[in-house]
Specification:
With 526 residues, the chain is α+β, with helices and mostly antiparallel strands. The chain has 12 helices and 31 strands. It has 2 domains: 229 residues, Thrombin, subunit H; 160 residues, 3-Layer(aba) Sandwich (Protein Transport Mog1p, Chain A), CATH 3.40.1000. The strands form 5 sheets. Strands 23, 24, 25, 26, 27, 28, 29 and 30 form an 8-stranded antiparallel beta sheet that branches. Strands 14, 15, 16, 17, 18, 19 and 20 form a 7-stranded antiparallel beta sheet that branches. The protein has a 6-stranded antiparallel β-barrel with strand order 8-9-10-13-12-11.
Length: 526
Amino acid sequence: MKPRLRRTIAVVFSFALVVAACSGGSGGTTTTTAATSTTATATTTTATASGAVSDLQGVRGAVVRIVAEGSFVDPVEGLVSNSAGSGSGFIIDPSGIAVTNNHVVTGAAILRVYVEGDDEPHNARVLGVSECSDLAAIQIDGAGPFPYLEWFDGPITAGLEIYAAGFPLGDPEYTLTEGIVSKEKASGESSWSSIDSVLEHTAQILPGNSGGPLVTADGKVVGINYASIGDLDIQYAISRDEANKVLADLIAGNDVTTIGVNGEAFTDGDLSGIWVAAVESGSPADRLGLTGGDVITKMEGLALATDGTMADYCDILRSNGPDEPMSVEIVRFDTQEVLEGTLNGEGGLQLAFSFADELADDVASDTGATYTYTEVRDEDGILVLQIPTAWTDIDGRGWEFDGELVGNTIVAAPNLTDFYNTWATPGVFFGASAVLAERYPSGGLLDVYDFSGECTLDGRYPYEDPVYSGEYTLWTNCGGTDTLFVVVEAYPPGGEFVVLVQIQVVTDADLDALDTILASFDVDLG
């Protein structure tokens, strides 16, 4: 894929982490009452005969700190191995069944759960998850009975006094903050979940409060905290009613509206999709071959996250059964590939399109050789491209067109003189020009670069990758040889400049170079 997008995505995600207290940001409008922070000091768990907590002081015994250990791919830091993230949860059954957020646990190798009064953490296993509801049910190991929380059974209305319990910022010290429900039904569409509606409230929460309960003065659960916009003093919780739509299935061991990823939606104008931070072992995503760092750009042919939310992604999951085949397209930055495959299908991930596969029969010279690649830039550092390391003759000066300097170029080959003057030497010309974008209509440069005097036109075809779109021409039998010549004219979404890429293909190894060049060329405007 395009190296420029990696940096752009990093900016988007850094902002999301700043504004979101629970590892994600959410939309919101206004809040009417400022939160007041208090700290609970009571340690004795008060419970009914059944074991359910019956007052605010007893909530502490049923709220747990969850440390998820594993390897995740962060859009800013890249692969973070053996890291430990911390969230909250709460026990809802004396046997040790607890509720938390999907984004707290999915993709973790180990879950360690800290229970009030126990010196050592308990191991836990995931029973079921829902990406779209951002919920998970886990089973805590150990002898019960555990103190547990029950659901509030009254109406949840604006002005209801509530308290947020949990372990923010990974601190082992339990905290409790107070506030009110400020909005009964706020938008539940966000970059990491898609819920009909959520509760907006004023009890302050911070990163690490994710998955912790929002309770009433008598210790009954109103919702599950999962997001905050700190600058606006707005907090969000998944409501009791929304949670109970899926929790029975999760407790029974069934996943709901998920393919098994810990991900977040984004869009930056050039590329949109679901960034995959981690993948659950054995899930449909894992079986297909998705891995941390992938971006799911399309599902069932529909472009995802164009509005920056998971709404379309989750609508597709809700419209298909958990075992039904669903087509996906992904961008894999590590290998700079666009891949496609079918969830719950066969065959794994394959290249979405490969000139090497499509044109292999048209190249006579099968040398069996392969290239290694290196990244190069033009003299101004604006153009970036992966080329074979064997193409050591490189010119990164400006693009001259009819004697006029119109843009930037990179030209590379084993020997540039032979590349320019014969059909026997592979090479690449890559240029970008705002001047020519204004001067020629779409497709106009392909008309200018006409090689019909020396080659046979195979055809003119649409060109599209996750960033650029346009057309390309394929020329064959160039100079009476089996050399192929591919000319691409493409534009970014705004059309502010035009890109021209010409690749001369002499051997089968040059076909692989063609794929790599088209997957890596980019214009970095800073």
